[in-house]
TrEMBL record:
Residues 3-259 form the Amidohydrolase-related domain. InterPro entries: Amidohydro-rel (IPR006680), Metal_Hydrolase (IPR032466). Signal peptide: none annotated. Coiled coil: none annotated. It comes from the Bacteria. This is Amidohydrolase family protein. Pfam families: Amidohydro_2 (PF04909).
Length: 262
């Protein structure tokens, strides 16, 4: 089974399904999202949508800031297409430890979701995910996905590796191959057995090749759609792997193993 490990709710959802069909992808992990760049018809529209993303990534999001709508969109997409989407849900990181634990129980486990993410701690704030890792462990070691591209820093990646080592049974998935800090991400993952690297939006083909070579059982095909394209992401993986076990693991086998643990 081919599984895209990183996708966000599209408006309309049918557009996402067409992308998956074009790529020959069976299923996709689906995260809730507040920005919708796929809605933009021009540069100004894209700027508006990306400003929502910027606020989420740098910690400026306040109040509800679209959370309720994002959850409704996720619930609707999962209910309409349970055969295509694997639901993950995010958790606000500006809550107390007890509130985070309650949110994981209510919003992730209570909804029947399969993992937590995509978490977006602000730059310098990666330590804030530790209560989420504790809650993930308490509920059967749910996979936890953390944003890896900018504004995530190399120091944030090191913090994530430290936290992963404290919670060795929880799979911690770093998205976007750690962005511009991909070499640091590969080094840290090599040293930390429960860190997995999701490969979406990787900017260099040899970065993907090296990551798969170093971590054949802990790299995950993902597109980050609508920011990336499943066809391009799958083609990238297939350009750096030959037919056989490693390709099958990256394109879905490893993620399926993680999901079967929960």
């Amino acid at each position: 089974m081919i599984i895209d490990a990183h996708g966000h709710v599209h408006d309309p959802v049918a557009d996402h399904l067409r992308l998956l069909d074009d790529a020959g992808v069976d299923r996709a992990v689906l995260f809730p999202t507040r920005p919708h760049p796929e809605r933009a018809a021009d540069l100004e529209g894209l700027r508006r949508e990306m400003s929502v993303l910027d606020r989420a990534l740098d910690g400026r999001a306040t109040g509800d800031d679209g959370y309720a709508a994002a959850w409704r969109e996720l619930d609707d997409a999962l209910a309409a297409h349970p055969d295509r989407f694997i639901g993950f849900g995010s958790v606000r990181l500006n809550l107390s430890d007890d509130e985070i634990a309650a949110a994981v129980e209510r919003d992730i486990v209570g909804r029947g979701l399969h993992g937590i993410g995509e978490l977006t701690p602000p730059p310098g704030g990666a330590a804030g995910i530790e209560p989420v890792l504790k809650a993930a462990h308490d509920h059967g070691d749910l996979p936890v996905v953390v944003h890896g591209f900018a504004p995530t820093t190399a120091e944030d990646l090191r913090t994530l590796a430290t936290l992963a080592a404290r919670h060795p049974s929880v799979p911690l998935i770093v998205s976007q191959l750690g962005g511009l800090n991909w070499m640091t991400a590969v080094e840290l993952a090599r040293e930390t057995p429960n860190i997995y690297l999701e490969l979406s939006t990787a900017h260099l083909i040899f970065a993907v090749r090296l990551a798969v070579q170093e971590l054949p059982e802990r790299t995950l095909f993902g597109s980050d759609a609508p920011y990336g394209d499943p066809v391009v992401a799958r083609t990238t993986v297939e350009r750096v792997t030959g037919p056989g076990e490693v390709r099958e693991l990256v394109l879905g086998g490893t993620l399926l193993r993680l999901l079967d643990r929960t």
